[in-house]
Fold this protein.
Amino acid sequence: MTEERARVLVVGSVAIDWVITEAAERPESVGGSGTFFAMAASYLAPVRLVGVVGRDFPASAIADLRARGVDTDGLEVVEDGLTFRWKGRYHKNMNSRDTLETHLNVFADFDPKLPAHYRDTELLFLANIQPDLQMRVLEQIARPRIVGLDTMNLWIDTAKPSLLKVLQRVDALLVNEEEALQLSGEHNLVKAARAIQKLGPHSVVVKRGEYGALLFHGDDMFAAPALPLEEVVDPTGAGDAFAGGFMGWLARAHEPRGDQLRTAMIFGSTLASFCVQGFSYDGIRGLDAARVQERFSAFARLTDFTRAQL
Amino acid sequence: MTEERARVLVVGSVAIDWVITEAAERPESVGGSGTFFAMAASYLAPVRLVGVVGRDFPASAIADLRARGVDTDGLEVVEDGLTFRWKGRYHKNMNSRDTLETHLNVFADFDPKLPAHYRDTELLFLANIQPDLQMRVLEQIARPRIVGLDTMNLWIDTAKPSLLKVLQRVDALLVNEEEALQLSGEHNLVKAARAIQKLGPHSVVVKRGEYGALLFHGDDMFAAPALPLEEVVDPTGAGDAFAGGFMGWLARAHEPRGDQLRTAMIFGSTLASFCVQGFSYDGIRGLDAARVQERFSAFARLTDFTRAQL
């Protein structure tokens, strides 16, 4: 079964976070966009991970990824270096946070070299790293069928020419609301998405945290809500888990047609909703197909209404 | 036809606004929660309006309401007074605003006395006014089938006992996110809604502006998106237009069952989306059933996805 399925490669950060919320503090919380993406996507498709860690990265986390079937041959371990670290504090409402510290460590000199057997990967997700690195990974994939990309305000500010260059080869851009506005220079989100589509990506996914996500695909629009939850433990990685669910479904669906993209948005929302229910990747490590399916159905119920006639 | 339909009574402000946006300034823009609600609801049900204005209120606005079939017998005109006035400036993103001036004028001494023929009204909406006034109107309706209520931070701060008293007799509370949190004392929206349900309302509708609205009904949840628009002219009154569409559909649907409440949320979103496309009530005055139906269908398309199986 698995051998016949399209695979998803993600390149992104693999990190040790220090997460502070109103309720708790986790000083050694394994995180990173690549980690969250890989865990989430693993419920839908075979995943290959590209990243770098230092000697301080827990072997148990690599074992957890492998237990989910993630191919970690592309995860470089630098023995004389330390893992990328991020420290942040969430506000009481869990919707916003302050970054307290960032240490690039081994990530500063990261030069991704993909294992030879990664070259034939069908779907590629370039998580939020420097755009020149994203391009270097893209160039090592022979014929990617679908390319997704995430980025952030830092790269829009400091590496826009490189970002615009890689965007030309991207099918789906996944960013948050502020990033979409900043990248396009627009104040209106619809105008922003239409402007970004002209830069390359046929699909623009705008992530809005607890407000859900919007998909702009060609002339079409789709709104996916977030699942309202009574308790949010740790929002870290929710956007990356969303991307994992989104790309994971597209790996199954083969063609990125509108209908499949809509379903992919709901699988993204599904994995994101699990992610925020635990610290680190706790919320997305012990799931199975039945639980993912059940949560997907909760989104169907959340959005269902009768098509009334006046 | 119309005679057989359940009617909706709204009590709320009828105002002259001074609206400033990035693109334009409208110093004499007819507004008020009662006005926006009545215009919006008029596409779905017969509407009765209770409010007060001064000698400066334009006769043309009353004529516009009557042209939509709104019964304005309950709109008191105080010849030696001035209409309630609000002045505000929207921020560039149109999501937030600053109130620059508020003049209660004739609204300060408002003592609603309903025309005798209003007494048999089936659906009642208590728009955002002082809770004791809301109660006084409620007491003048013989047997209201469904009671909706809106309120604001000011009344939660200054008149909470009165608000809690009237809430006991309310079926559906419609408030924004901050108001729901403030009223309940919770930081989480789901917990807030569940706490508010214990105060009386079986249904809690949380309005989130451009992010849409959530319905909590019994144990059920429903998420309605806002329609992403390329141009928002004036957000003033969108929440009241939402309430008008919501209550208007319930007047047609008779029983406030879950399915009907979901459809009502989409009619609320439909009227709100029209409202923000013009200043004052320009966006909701010249519609017809076909245009309302067409916009409703746009929401169906916006949220539609295939129920996939893993």
Notes: The first strand of chain A starts at residue 8 and ends at 11. Residues 258-275 of chain A form the longest helix (18 residues). Chain A touches chain B through 47 residues (CB under 8 Å).
